[in-house]
Amino acid sequence: VHGPPNHPHPANPRRLDPFDGFSFPCYNINMAKRYQALFRFIAALIAFMIVATLSTASAQDKENGLYQQESEEVQEYYTLAPPFEENIFSQNSEYSSASSSNSLLCVHKGKTDDVHKSRNNRDVSVHGWWIKISGNCPPKAKVWVELQAWRCKKWWIFWSCGWDTVDRSSSRLIYPKGGSANRVNARHICVSNSRVSWRAAVDVDIPGQPDPSTKFYSTNYDLACNPRD
């Protein structure tokens, strides 16, 4: 029995195959199966390499004291800052709200001691104050100091790192040059002893002059104090 008119049976029928949409260099069915097996092997190898890479990264994260936030996809942890991370406005800089040639302005500088672990070895601490360089400075200035730690965030394969303020002192009107009575203090409890990079930031507000956003930064200190597990 012949097929319907205008629909003749093909002279060389092909067997249906799930990879029928692919164009193989040879239509021999045995050769096609070999290519299919090769493609499946390559796909499985790539999948295995991706899983192995992610597993290794996860293990390294645990060794570094990875901190898991409420969202399981975003992770945070504190660690050592890279050596090329430099402070853009160090305590070696001087600042006035305008040209220092104007004698009516106060040219000043923010200062700190070394970021250090306290005597109880349970927290990290720093003191901040200000000094007069030149110009017309008032007897007192408002000063506060911040403790900052190097923090990294990870989401899937994306990373971002930067300085995170973990503690900020209350502001005080103090005389220049420091001393136990003329400085402010910031401190933060150590949750673990893994090494983290720390620095201090001093903000000085001169009464009667514009208050810029500029801060004076200390050098970086690598301490055995992690503000989180």
Labels describing this entry:
single chain, 229 residues, alpha+beta, 8-stranded antiparallel beta sheet, 4-stranded antiparallel beta sheet, 1 helix, 12 strands, 34% strand
Structure in words:
The chain is of the alpha+beta class and 229 residues long. The chain has one helix at 29-63; strands spanning 67-68, 74-78, 106-112, 116-117, 123-135, 141-155, 158-168, 172-174, 184-189, 196-205, 216-217, 221-223. The strands form two sheets. Strands 1, 2, 6, 7, 8, 10, 11 and 12 form an eight-stranded antiparallel sheet that branches. Strands 3, 4, 5 and 9 form a four-stranded antiparallel sheet that branches. A hairpin with a 5-residue loop joins β4 (116-117) and β5. The longest helix has 35 residues, at 29-63. It is elongated.
